[in-house]
Amino acid sequence: MIKQLHSMGIRSSLAYTAGIASIGLSVASWVVSKGSENAGLDRADRWGIFVGEWAPTLFALGVALRMEELREEEEMRQRMGTGTSTSTDTGTGMFDKSQGGRTPVHTQP
């Protein structure tokens, strides 16, 4: 599903922006519901919580899309011959990305 969204042109920055917007929309929906409806504070709270629950999902989607973007960038580097598997070049710390990101890199002194 993430690959499909990425191929459709949806990027992580869009998901992050939507997550931030949903936080603001949550507050706005609570204020509007509290002021314009006669249903009371309970209903306003429900509207605020309902919209506020979108934010974590959108942020998680942003992280997944960012991982897809990084994977695509790494594939592009490898195809162009500029990709390396050393931890200092890829910024992955002590792991080698060429082995799925889980194999420790051992260097000779």
Task: Please summarize what this structure is.
The chain has 109 residues and is mainly alpha-helical. It has helices at 2-7, 12-36, 41-52, 54-79, 87-90, and strands at 95-96, 103-104. The chain has a two-stranded antiparallel ribbon.
Report on the architecture of this protein.
This protein is mostly helical and 109 residues long. Helix 2 runs antiparallel to helix 3 (41-52) and helix 2 (12-36) packs antiparallel against helix 4 (54-79). The termini are far apart. It is built from five helices and two strands, in the order αααααββ. It has a two-stranded antiparallel sheet.
Keywords:
109 residues; mainly alpha; two-stranded antiparallel sheet
Sequence-ordered SSE layout with sheet pairings:
Blueprint lengths: L1 H6 L4 H25 L4 H12 L1 H26 L7 H4 L4 E2 L6 E2 L5
Antiparallel strand pairs: 1-2
